[in-house]
Amino acid sequence: MTEFGSSCVVGLRCVCCSATYTLTGTIYTCAACGGNLQVEYDYDAIRRHWSRDTLSGNPDRSIWRYAPLYPVETRIDSPPIGWTPLFRASRLGEELGLGELFVKDDGRNPSASFKDRASAVALARARDIGRDLVTGASTGNAGSSTAVLAAAVGMRARIFIPRTAPRAKVAQLLAFGAEVLAVEGTYDQAFDLCLAATERFGWYNRNTGYNPFTREGKKSVSFEICEQMGWQVPDLVVVPVGDGNIISGVWKGFEDFRRIGFIDRVPRLLAVQAQGSAAVVRALEGDGTIEPVSGETVADSISVSMPRDGDAAVQAVRDSGGFGITVTDEDILAAISKVARGSGVFGEPAGVASYAGLRKAIEQGRIDPNWTIVILITGNGLKDVASAMKVAGEPRLITPDAEALGEIFKKD
């Protein structure tokens, strides 16, 4: 078996109608029903040539250490992506009455977002098939991660964003040389316009919930959790959910490792959504059908009216034995300070929604305090400083006078 996993790819399967395709039979979605596709592997072949022992001897500390489970021939080495820190958050855990709480800080990736994982594999696939221009729709994070990697490998990036995207994310896009198209509308409208452009101009589309290779990148976080926890699978992984692609990727990572015998079970998944953007949670609580919602929330990275990977997200949560929960914007904003002061991690609103959801689930009595729990922090707080300032407050203004300091702090 080669270092990379494309030789062990069985094909692509639709998550909705189960139609199958070869790896080269389609680029994006199911031709039969329009559903999203999932990459499937020959797990027996991978198991015969790859083990936990061979993995432990690999000095690579990036997502590419898991190359046998990616459907690409090439790799993007610079900047390095993945192997973000996973650590015990003792203070946060004590406040919540939990014995074992861990934080996975994906704000440490090159663009300060979890989305770098998806972009790495999607752009590697673009290079495999000879594309040099990649496009995508984004509220900021997916676009900036695409721009970072495109710049690193000499590809062009053309990104559609809603006009309301946070300025810090827009700055990243422009700094890395992407052509940015700000749409007078919502993320969903930007997404649809990007699809129309893809069809008309033939650009390579990296959109999550459309390009099946994004899920293949996002699943790498689960591989890392397994290794970093010494192959002890957590009882619960808490995931912020927008279009559904992250949580479906988290499930697939654990499932891939289960299928090759590296672990013996998949953890429960808790899908956390903002109340105004809760299409996946509503589907989980109902008959599983995804219906559009307003998408309104302060957490721009999970602000979605119609989740493009919603069907796979619902399947992932149900398969894991997990559940969904909604939180208010007030809950999300309050979580910024809670996570920062309790764990030393500065997360953007969408990133800390996982903590807000876990806290609410505990209040509802849905969490066993003896569980080992991992919360994903999917983006750094510097991505959206305006939201952080809403809860952090302003600094105290003082005069440059040492005597004045004595008056201020005389009671300390």
Short note summarizing the structure:
With 412 residues, this protein is an alpha/beta fold.
Structure description:
- 40% of the residues lie in helices and 16% in strands.
- The protein is an alpha/beta fold.
- It has a domain at 86-111 and 214-392: Rossmann fold.
- Strand 7 (156-162), helix 6 (167-175) and strand 8 form a beta-alpha-beta unit.
- Helix 8 packs across helix 10 (245-259), helix 10 (245-259) crosses helix 12 (310-320) and helix 11 packs across helix 12.
- The chain is globular and about 75 Å long.
- The model has no long low-confidence stretch (mean pLDDT 94).
**C-alpha termini separation:** 66 Å
Q: Strands of the biggest beta sheet: in what spatial order?
A: 4-5-13-10-11-12
Q: Enumerate the spans where pLDDT stays under 50 for 5 or more consecutive residues.
A: none
Order of helices and strands: EEEHHEHEHEHEHEHEHHEHEHHEHHEHH
Rg computed from alpha carbons, rounded to a whole number of angstroms = 21 Å
Number of helices: 16
